[in-house]
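Annex B. Sample input.
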Amino acid sequence: MNDSQWAAVDEEAGQRMIKINGVNLCTQAFGDPANPALLLIMGATASMMRWPETLCRELVDSGLYVIRYDNRDTGISTSYPPYAPPYTAVDLAQDAVGILDAYGIERAHAWGISLGGMITQQLAINHPDRLLTATVMSSTPDPKAIGAAATGGGVTHSPLPGPTSVVMELIKILAKVDWHDPAAAVEAWVTEDRMLYGTYPFDEAGSRETAVQEVRRASNILSHRFNHPIAVDRTQLASPAARHPGTSLDHPRDRGRRLPSSSRGRSRR
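Annex B, continued. Sample output.
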Protein backbone atom coordinates (compact mmCIF):
# COMPACT_ATOMS: atom_id res chain seq x y z
CA MET A 1 0.00 0.00 0.00
CA ASN A 2 1.40 3.40 -0.93
CA ASP A 3 1.74 6.41 1.35
CA SER A 4 -1.22 8.23 -0.21
CA GLN A 5 -3.54 5.37 0.67
CA TRP A 6 -2.37 5.34 4.28
CA ALA A 7 -2.80 9.12 4.36
CA ALA A 8 -6.40 8.69 3.19
CA VAL A 9 -7.33 6.82 6.37
CA ASP A 10 -9.32 9.23 8.54
CA GLU A 11 -8.41 8.04 12.04
CA GLU A 12 -10.29 10.94 13.65
CA ALA A 13 -13.47 9.60 12.02
CA GLY A 14 -12.87 6.13 13.44
CA GLN A 15 -11.22 4.62 10.36
CA ARG A 16 -8.56 1.94 10.72
CA MET A 17 -6.38 0.15 8.19
CA ILE A 18 -6.20 -3.51 9.21
CA LYS A 19 -3.90 -6.15 7.74
CA ILE A 20 -5.87 -9.37 7.28
CA ASN A 21 -4.97 -12.48 5.28
CA GLY A 22 -2.09 -10.60 3.66
CA VAL A 23 -4.23 -7.64 2.53
CA ASN A 24 -4.97 -4.19 3.91
CA LEU A 25 -8.62 -3.37 4.54
CA CYS A 26 -9.93 0.06 5.47
CA THR A 27 -12.57 -0.12 8.19
CA GLN A 28 -14.64 2.41 10.09
CA ALA A 29 -16.47 1.96 13.39
CA PHE A 30 -19.33 3.96 14.89
CA GLY A 31 -20.74 3.90 18.39
CA ASP A 32 -19.94 2.23 21.69
CA PRO A 33 -17.80 -0.94 21.44
CA ALA A 34 -19.65 -2.29 24.47
CA ASN A 35 -22.86 -2.60 22.42
CA PRO A 36 -23.75 -5.56 20.17
CA ALA A 37 -21.77 -5.33 16.94
CA LEU A 38 -23.18 -5.04 13.42
CA LEU A 39 -20.88 -5.71 10.46
CA LEU A 40 -22.04 -4.02 7.25
CA ILE A 41 -20.84 -5.88 4.12
CA MET A 42 -21.24 -3.99 0.86
CA GLY A 43 -21.85 -5.49 -2.58
CA ALA A 44 -19.74 -5.71 -5.71
CA THR A 45 -17.96 -2.67 -7.17
CA ALA A 46 -18.92 -0.52 -4.19
CA SER A 47 -16.95 0.72 -1.21
CA MET A 48 -18.11 1.15 2.37
CA MET A 49 -19.26 4.67 1.45
CA ARG A 50 -22.34 3.04 -0.06
CA TRP A 51 -23.46 2.48 3.54
CA PRO A 52 -24.43 6.11 4.25
CA GLU A 53 -22.98 7.57 7.42
CA THR A 54 -26.48 8.75 8.35
CA LEU A 55 -27.66 5.12 8.28
CA CYS A 56 -24.68 4.03 10.37
CA ARG A 57 -25.47 6.64 12.99
CA GLU A 58 -29.16 5.73 13.04
CA LEU A 59 -28.12 2.13 13.72
CA VAL A 60 -25.86 3.37 16.50
CA ASP A 61 -28.82 5.24 17.99
CA SER A 62 -30.70 1.93 18.07
CA GLY A 63 -28.02 0.50 20.37
CA LEU A 64 -25.52 -1.10 17.96
CA TYR A 65 -21.76 -0.83 17.45
CA VAL A 66 -21.49 -0.48 13.67
CA ILE A 67 -18.54 -1.38 11.44
CA ARG A 68 -18.35 -0.77 7.71
CA TYR A 69 -15.35 -1.50 5.50
CA ASP A 70 -13.90 -1.44 1.99
CA ASN A 71 -13.74 -4.91 0.46
CA ARG A 72 -10.66 -5.76 -1.56
CA ASP A 73 -10.44 -3.75 -4.79
CA THR A 74 -12.74 -1.01 -3.46
CA GLY A 75 -12.00 2.27 -1.74
CA ILE A 76 -8.51 2.41 -0.30
CA SER A 77 -8.20 -1.27 0.59
CA THR A 78 -5.72 -3.50 -1.25
CA SER A 79 -6.22 -3.34 -5.01
CA TYR A 80 -5.13 -5.86 -7.65
CA PRO A 81 -4.48 -5.41 -11.38
CA PRO A 82 -7.66 -4.85 -13.38
CA TYR A 83 -9.41 -8.01 -14.60
CA ALA A 84 -7.09 -10.26 -12.55
CA PRO A 85 -8.39 -10.67 -8.98
CA PRO A 86 -6.58 -13.59 -7.25
CA TYR A 87 -9.41 -14.11 -4.77
CA THR A 88 -13.00 -15.39 -4.61
CA ALA A 89 -16.05 -14.54 -2.51
CA VAL A 90 -14.95 -17.22 -0.05
CA ASP A 91 -11.73 -15.25 0.57
CA LEU A 92 -13.81 -12.12 1.12
CA ALA A 93 -15.77 -13.98 3.79
CA GLN A 94 -12.50 -14.84 5.51
CA ASP A 95 -11.68 -11.13 5.43
CA ALA A 96 -14.92 -10.42 7.30
CA VAL A 97 -13.93 -12.92 10.00
CA GLY A 98 -10.55 -11.20 10.23
CA ILE A 99 -12.23 -7.85 10.80
CA LEU A 100 -14.23 -9.28 13.69
CA ASP A 101 -10.98 -10.67 15.12
CA ALA A 102 -9.20 -7.34 14.74
CA TYR A 103 -11.96 -5.56 16.65
CA GLY A 104 -12.07 -8.25 19.32
CA ILE A 105 -15.63 -9.23 18.47
CA GLU A 106 -16.71 -12.79 19.20
CA ARG A 107 -20.16 -12.61 17.60
CA ALA A 108 -21.81 -9.95 15.49
CA HIS A 109 -24.90 -9.24 13.48
CA ALA A 110 -24.05 -9.24 9.75
CA TRP A 111 -25.94 -7.33 7.08
CA GLY A 112 -24.86 -7.97 3.51
CA ILE A 113 -26.23 -6.71 0.22
CA SER A 114 -25.65 -8.31 -3.21
CA LEU A 115 -22.08 -9.72 -3.13
CA GLY A 116 -22.12 -8.77 0.55
CA GLY A 117 -25.12 -11.09 0.88
CA MET A 118 -23.06 -13.95 -0.58
CA ILE A 119 -20.31 -13.17 1.91
CA THR A 120 -22.86 -13.11 4.74
CA GLN A 121 -24.19 -16.51 3.68
CA GLN A 122 -20.66 -17.92 3.70
CA LEU A 123 -20.21 -16.59 7.21
CA ALA A 124 -23.43 -18.32 8.26
CA ILE A 125 -22.34 -21.60 6.66
CA ASN A 126 -18.67 -21.69 7.62
CA HIS A 127 -18.59 -19.55 10.77
CA PRO A 128 -22.03 -19.75 12.43
CA ASP A 129 -20.43 -19.34 15.84
CA ARG A 130 -19.36 -15.80 14.85
CA LEU A 131 -22.84 -14.54 14.01
CA LEU A 132 -25.74 -13.34 16.11
CA THR A 133 -27.97 -12.87 13.07
CA ALA A 134 -27.55 -12.72 9.30
CA THR A 135 -29.48 -10.30 7.08
CA VAL A 136 -29.17 -10.93 3.33
CA MET A 137 -30.49 -8.44 0.76
CA SER A 138 -30.64 -8.48 -3.05
CA SER A 139 -28.49 -11.59 -3.22
CA THR A 140 -28.29 -15.27 -4.09
CA PRO A 141 -26.33 -18.27 -2.75
CA ASP A 142 -25.43 -19.25 -6.32
CA PRO A 143 -23.13 -16.83 -8.19
CA LYS A 144 -23.56 -18.80 -11.43
CA ALA A 145 -27.25 -17.90 -11.35
CA ILE A 146 -26.36 -14.24 -11.90
CA GLY A 147 -24.55 -14.94 -15.15
CA ALA A 148 -27.33 -17.28 -16.31
CA ALA A 149 -29.94 -14.60 -15.67
CA ALA A 150 -27.88 -11.86 -17.34
CA THR A 151 -27.44 -13.97 -20.48
CA GLY A 152 -31.11 -14.87 -20.67
CA GLY A 153 -30.90 -18.25 -18.95
CA GLY A 154 -33.69 -17.29 -16.58
CA VAL A 155 -35.54 -20.12 -14.88
CA THR A 156 -34.18 -22.67 -17.36
CA HIS A 157 -30.64 -22.48 -16.00
CA SER A 158 -31.15 -20.32 -12.94
CA PRO A 159 -33.72 -19.67 -10.22
CA LEU A 160 -33.29 -15.97 -10.93
CA PRO A 161 -35.42 -14.16 -13.52
CA GLY A 162 -33.72 -12.43 -16.42
CA PRO A 163 -32.87 -8.73 -16.21
CA THR A 164 -35.38 -6.10 -17.25
CA SER A 165 -34.90 -4.02 -20.38
CA VAL A 166 -33.85 -1.10 -18.16
CA VAL A 167 -30.97 -3.14 -16.72
CA MET A 168 -29.91 -4.33 -20.17
CA GLU A 169 -29.85 -0.71 -21.35
CA LEU A 170 -27.78 0.22 -18.30
CA ILE A 171 -25.24 -2.49 -19.15
CA LYS A 172 -24.86 -1.00 -22.63
CA ILE A 173 -24.37 2.50 -21.21
CA LEU A 174 -21.75 1.41 -18.68
CA ALA A 175 -19.82 -0.51 -21.34
CA LYS A 176 -19.09 2.79 -23.11
CA VAL A 177 -17.83 4.73 -20.07
CA ASP A 178 -14.26 6.04 -19.97
CA TRP A 179 -13.60 5.16 -16.33
CA HIS A 180 -10.24 6.95 -16.42
CA ASP A 181 -12.13 10.25 -16.77
CA PRO A 182 -13.25 11.16 -13.20
CA ALA A 183 -16.15 13.30 -14.42
CA ALA A 184 -17.40 10.56 -16.74
CA ALA A 185 -17.05 7.99 -13.96
CA VAL A 186 -19.13 10.10 -11.57
CA GLU A 187 -21.85 10.61 -14.20
CA ALA A 188 -21.90 6.86 -14.88
CA TRP A 189 -22.37 6.08 -11.19
CA VAL A 190 -25.21 8.59 -10.94
CA THR A 191 -26.84 7.15 -14.06
CA GLU A 192 -26.52 3.66 -12.61
CA ASP A 193 -28.13 4.75 -9.34
CA ARG A 194 -30.96 6.56 -11.11
CA MET A 195 -31.86 3.54 -13.23
CA LEU A 196 -31.58 1.06 -10.36
CA TYR A 197 -33.74 3.16 -8.04
CA GLY A 198 -36.73 2.16 -10.14
CA THR A 199 -39.89 3.80 -8.86
CA TYR A 200 -38.35 4.96 -5.58
CA PRO A 201 -37.63 8.70 -5.15
CA PHE A 202 -34.12 9.36 -6.44
CA ASP A 203 -31.77 11.50 -4.38
CA GLU A 204 -29.52 12.77 -7.15
CA ALA A 205 -27.50 15.07 -4.90
CA GLY A 206 -26.80 12.25 -2.47
CA SER A 207 -25.96 9.88 -5.31
CA ARG A 208 -23.54 12.37 -6.83
CA GLU A 209 -21.85 13.02 -3.50
CA THR A 210 -21.30 9.29 -2.98
CA ALA A 211 -20.10 8.84 -6.56
CA VAL A 212 -17.50 11.57 -6.09
CA GLN A 213 -16.29 9.79 -2.94
CA GLU A 214 -16.08 6.48 -4.79
CA VAL A 215 -14.02 7.94 -7.63
CA ARG A 216 -11.70 9.93 -5.35
CA ARG A 217 -11.07 7.01 -2.96
CA ALA A 218 -10.65 4.22 -5.51
CA SER A 219 -7.09 2.89 -5.54
CA ASN A 220 -7.67 1.67 -9.10
CA ILE A 221 -10.97 2.61 -10.71
CA LEU A 222 -10.89 -0.25 -13.24
CA SER A 223 -10.21 -2.81 -10.53
CA HIS A 224 -12.96 -1.23 -8.44
CA ARG A 225 -15.50 -1.58 -11.24
CA PHE A 226 -14.55 -4.91 -12.82
CA ASN A 227 -12.67 -7.24 -10.46
CA HIS A 228 -15.55 -8.27 -8.20
CA PRO A 229 -17.71 -9.78 -10.98
CA ILE A 230 -14.72 -11.84 -12.11
CA ALA A 231 -14.04 -13.00 -8.56
CA VAL A 232 -17.69 -13.98 -8.08
CA ASP A 233 -17.72 -15.93 -11.34
CA ARG A 234 -14.71 -17.95 -10.12
CA THR A 235 -16.29 -18.70 -6.74
CA GLN A 236 -17.32 -22.20 -5.69
CA LEU A 237 -19.48 -21.57 -2.65
CA ALA A 238 -19.72 -24.03 0.20
CA SER A 239 -22.85 -26.15 0.50
CA PRO A 240 -24.88 -25.34 3.61
CA ALA A 241 -26.21 -28.91 3.72
CA ALA A 242 -22.66 -30.27 3.89
CA ARG A 243 -21.93 -28.23 7.00
CA HIS A 244 -25.38 -28.37 8.59
CA PRO A 245 -27.41 -31.44 7.56
CA GLY A 246 -31.09 -30.72 7.21
CA THR A 247 -30.55 -27.01 6.60
CA SER A 248 -30.63 -25.41 3.16
CA LEU A 249 -30.06 -21.91 1.89
CA ASP A 250 -29.39 -22.82 -1.72
CA HIS A 251 -32.82 -22.07 -3.18
CA PRO A 252 -34.94 -18.91 -3.17
CA ARG A 253 -37.77 -20.70 -1.38
CA ASP A 254 -35.42 -21.15 1.60
CA ARG A 255 -34.71 -17.45 2.03
CA GLY A 256 -34.99 -16.41 5.62
CA ARG A 257 -34.40 -19.88 7.03
CA ARG A 258 -31.85 -19.71 9.81
CA LEU A 259 -28.77 -21.80 10.19
CA PRO A 260 -28.16 -23.13 13.71
CA SER A 261 -26.17 -20.12 14.87
CA SER A 262 -27.08 -18.85 18.30
CA SER A 263 -28.39 -15.34 18.83
CA ARG A 264 -27.42 -15.62 22.46
CA GLY A 265 -24.12 -14.91 24.11
CA ARG A 266 -21.68 -12.07 24.29
CA SER A 267 -20.93 -10.06 21.17
CA ARG A 268 -17.38 -9.28 22.18
CA ARG A 269 -14.38 -11.32 23.17
